[in-house]
Amino acid sequence: MEDYAGYAPWIVMAVNGLIAGWLAHLILGGGGLIRDIFTGIIGAFVGGALVQAGLLKLPILLDWPWVHQILVATIGALLIIIIARIIGR
Predict the structure, then answer these.
(1) Residue 34 is inside which H or E element, if any?
(2) Angle between the N-to-C axes of helices 8-28 and 65-88, in degrees from 0 to 180, rounded to the nearest 10
């Protein structure tokens, strides 16, 4: 029997990306489900890089760490959408 525990981080990242992309979609409009997922996943990387660089500081919600992750990913997704719209003009 195969161990599927190795896939858990990828599934969590995809769900996190979907939620973040969907929230960014609600705020700025655009996209569909697939675009929301990709925007959210890329946004998670961008938001995480901003946190690591010290450029993005949010209060850590110790009771719900996943809320912090989704907020960081959503901020990253919003930045991705804004940059894409500026480049696309």
Answers:
(1) helix 33-53
(2) 60
Tokens of 40: 């959210």
Q: Rounded to whole angstroms, what are the CA distances from 31 to 9, 45, 51, 56, 58?
A: 25, 19, 26, 25, 27
User: What are the residue boundaries of the structural domains of the chain, listed by start?
Assistant: 21-88
Question: Which residue carries 């655009």 as its tokens?
Answer: 30
| Alpha-carbon gap, residue 58 to 70, rounded angstroms | 12
| Interval 37-89: pLDDT, tens | 888 889 988 988 898 898 988 777 667 777 888 898 999 999 999 998 899 88
DSSP 54: T
Residue 29 class from Cβ within 10 Å (0-12 exposed, 13-18 middle, 19+ buried)? exposed
The band of 17, judged by pLDDT with boundaries at 50, 70 and 90, is confident
